[in-house]
Amino acid sequence: MIEYPAYMPPTAPNAPESPLLETSLQLPLLRKGKVRDVYEIPAGLLTGALPAAAGGALLITASDRISAFDVVMPTPITGKGAVLTQLSTFWLRFIEARGLARTHLISTDHTLLPETIFSPGGTTREQLAGRIMIARKARVIPIECVARGYLEGSGWKEYQQSQSVCGVKLPSGLTQCAKLPMPIFTPATKEELGKHDENISFDRAASIAGENVMEQLRETTLAIYMAAAEHARSRGIIIADTKFEFGIPEGGTDPILIDEALTPDSSRFWPADDYAPGRAQKSFDKQYLREYLETLVAKNEWNKQAPGPQLPGEVVERTIAKYREAMQRLTA
Question: For residue 77, what are the domain limits?
Fold first, then answer.
């Protein structure tokens, strides 16, 4: 049996935070996402310090960038990257400890990184404190694995047209944010930065990734969602829906969970004590930001295309406050 270390919050700086919008390290940059920059750690660079990464690993850095409607905003949300890293680390260890899935997480200790990756004028070690994951390399399976327990967002829009979501037929008469009889698996395509992910049927996902793989991912996704939703409910939070990414690790055949897990960036978090179906819900995620941006769209001040608008201070402060409250409730 694999034994996983107990969850420990990632090391974070004691000094007041400064926003981190971009990273620059002396490592090969593999991918710059909406929030995370992914670098390759060459084989041997962490030998001795971290044997599990001796054959090479990934360095995933969480910036303070925030996106909405697939557009990255120009204004950083100071501290967001550290919150996402701490919460995602908690969930990855939670998932491992319950035997729900293996994950890519090796370590969050920024002190293990060698001095050679830092250069004058680039990102400093201190800026990475609390923001990094050293992770196993994996070949990404190009499907977003979405679990829905409640009817909102694109699922609600689709239901109003067809009484189904991604080919999953649902009972008639459901209202916005209604709790579903059982959680459902609704895959989506995984698109490049700037393009919209597309909800697809299970059959189409199977044609892309293989039926056996998708059967396994559906089972794993729903098992993780139900366990996480039960934990969150005990802390006063409803996880309405969430999405996961999986990959095949180097030298392996079975998928592992990669990227983030169950954060306000990838999930809808609602306060349980205020929940009522038939209307939009208060939230601990970036729905507040989306609603602000919709007011700009309504006034023809933005068209949901890049570049995004500058965000006022109140929107920044309320957004990070919601993220921090979710983290504190879930991990305390």
Answer: 29-139
